[in-house]
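Good morning N.,

You mentioned wanting to compare the apo and holo forms, so I went ahead and generated the holo version with 2-acetamido-2-deoxy-beta-D-glucopyranose. This is what I fed in:
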Amino acid sequence: MRASFTLFSVCLYALLSSGTSSGDDRRWLMSLVDLVELDYEDNCEQRATASWNELIGAPKGLAKKLERDKAFGILSRQQTAEVKSAVSPKALASDDLLKRRVKLLLQPGDTLLEPEQWIRLVTFGNTALHKLRFATDYYCGTQTNCTLRELNRNMAKQHDEDVLLRMKNSWEQKLPNQKEYLEHILPLLRNASKENGYKTVEEYWDSLAEYEGALLKVREIWDYINPLYVKLHKYIALKLKGADAVGKPLPVHLLKSLNGDDWSNIIENLLPERADIYQKLHVHLRLQEYGGLKAFKQAENLLKFLEIGEIEPEIFAESYFNGSCPTSIVDSCKPNKLRFVTCGDISLVNYIEAHEAVTKLKYKITSALHSNNTYVLREATRYSAIYEAIPGFISLLSLNPHTLDRAKLYPLERFNYNPNYHRLVLQLIIALRDLPKLNYYIAADEWRLKVLTGTIPSSKVAASWKEFRANFSMLETSDKDILGDSYVLFNKPFVGKFMGIILKYQIYQSFAEELISDDYDLVKHVMEKNERLIEPMIRGFSAKWPEMVSDLLAKRENSLEYTGLTDYFRLLDEYLDNQLDPSTDSNDIAEYVDPPETDVSQERVPDENDIPINQNNIDLKQIPVDTNGNIMDNVIDTGGDNHNKFSFETSTVGVLEIKNPVATGEHNEETRPKEASYNTYWWIGISVALVVIIALVAIIARKRHSHRKQLERQRRENTVA
Ligand SMILES: *[C@@H]1O[C@H](CO)[C@@H](O)[C@H](O)[C@H]1NC(C)=O
Ligand SMILES: *[C@@H]1O[C@H](CO)[C@@H](O)[C@H](O)[C@H]1NC(C)=O
Ligand SMILES: *[C@@H]1O[C@H](CO)[C@@H](O)[C@H](O)[C@H]1NC(C)=O
Ligand SMILES: *[C@@H]1O[C@H](CO)[C@@H](O)[C@H](O)[C@H]1NC(C)=O
Ligand SMILES: *[C@@H]1O[C@H](CO)[C@@H](O)[C@H](O)[C@H]1NC(C)=O
Ligand SMILES: *[C@@H]1O[C@H](CO)[C@@H](O)[C@H](O)[C@H]1NC(C)=O
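and this is what came out, ligand included:
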């Protein structure tokens, strides 16, 4: 109301002052935009209250939310029309921020649908989600009537195939009508594209993702990631169902998943022999009760450590920990007025996701603060990969050995003892979450585009999701399980989330590559360079995200690359190769699979059956054997650590492996100037050590090179196939 009245005055003012100069045009447009945003802001607060009540299951929550969402579409159309009438090239000249705001206001996305169509969309989506969220008669095995949260919790624990299938079926029965979706909801995308000025839905989605040719890029990237996905899939089939099942579609309920987008629940079937770190994490999460608020507090601790800042206590105090996961954030568009609903369950996945959620909160708070709380710069309908990638990156850091140590989940000494075994397990944990997501995201976008463009004949559409999922994802799903997802129900593209996952590994890689210094704590290093993360948060939606990528990565390039991800998972990739085809690299397999039972005790003797890269340790130990013991320790500790830590995790393997031992040598020279009598021995020791290291590095590099070639070959074969 307030805003509308002021708007009236502004219009009057504009009418009266005829013959405006371009400065006046600009000022007028500016005040109009400010007012439009104020209207949005008022509406945002009311909508947030309604959303909140719906999420926590308050009486009439759904009805109020529907009402608010309907009103929002109508408001958005009006405001867009108003801004359109006031825009002129003159008024926009030389003010980039204003240009940006106007652009976002003029293309608000699906709200431009005709009111009747918009209402149909939000009614369908909200009603479906509400039903799924609050149904109390899911099948949970022993318990017959249970909630969604109990269903999720029990699915993770259940081992009986038939029970799992019945659980999944009880969820499927709650999904909305598929025919209605295909006939009346999905096609709205064509209309929304048109209203926003795009010829095709793909162009429209590209524009919402603000990346030129986003979907093309995503397809291209997937071709390079698919081989790893396929390997993980084959390994799972092998472990769960034996050699005969390899290469065939896996039923999603066997993956203890409702729609196959996350395979974390089957981790215990997949762990390599040495999975000490997983057992400890599992136990310590429970001992420390890192679920609900405590998980969020722990995530906040990581943000504090990174000096990204803390979360205002009121936000935690007003949030609700007795709802369902994944976490939903509700933003009231007022400074620090954010709340979230989550589940209080303790699990590794929830712990990791708490880190993402807390970072998203911080992201929103920071953008809002620096956009002067401008509505459209904080709530734009754009799918920013950076908004997904930075929280994702923080969640990767949550499993960093140093973070685990600080969180008292796994001691660093123990980690350093047999690091690659632990690293492998951590990579598996992360891969089971991210690879199925990437696949699901691209599958869901591709399938929807295929349906919309008529590539799939209409007679076959009804069964086509199942078929597509079997072809593309090697998963056996139902025809309609895609309808449990809010992004699908509201016709939103996943392409931004896909690109976010890719980008998070690029961020990881960019920081990890810089660690050629003495400081090997990646988290500390990120803290020292945290402005790279904070800057995009500050800029929020004031620029397109691709423009910020180059600063974020501290590199010249600004494009998405798959190599960050494939390099991150190299250790897992090699492990899967060995597991699937023990003949390929018999050396590795011997050392991986059959470690002696030299219990992972506290002593600092390197394990002789460590994987090849660790043989550096052994040799280093042998060489300077008759020199000063402390020096030896130094060489082993820093040099060895280094190899272990980064050799598999960055693309600059060669650089790191060659540089570090030398750095270690210099370091020793400086710190031990007094040991004159040992000097000669020491130098001989070091020279021999260096020669051996260089030889080893050369061998490893060659092996790695040939391995890489092999991977490339496989990839090509896979792409061709
Ligand atoms: C489960 O709920 C249904 C209806 O919601 C009811 O008919 C049935 O008796 C309930 N079963 C149990 C075991 O509580
Ligand atoms: C798209 O818009 C056209 C014209 O306004 C309308 O006839 C059609 O029904 C709309 N599509 C859907 C799925 O509502
Ligand atoms: C959490 O929700 C469940 C039902 O969803 C209810 O039985 C329980 O009392 C709630 N606990 C708290 C602390 O509100
Ligand atoms: C916020 O306001 C300040 C001072 O009014 C201005 O300098 C700055 O450009 C504004 N930032 C945005 C993003 O609007
Ligand atoms: C699945 O693959 C088969 C054989 O390659 C193909 O005929 C079919 O059209 C594909 N289905 C979908 C939905 O892509
Ligand atoms: C990315 O970099 C290329 C050249 O390296 C440049 O042409 C392009 O405009 C940049 N894109 C963005 C969004 O900054």
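The chain has two domains: 2-157, 210-567.

Happy to go through it together on a call whenever suits you.

Best,
F.
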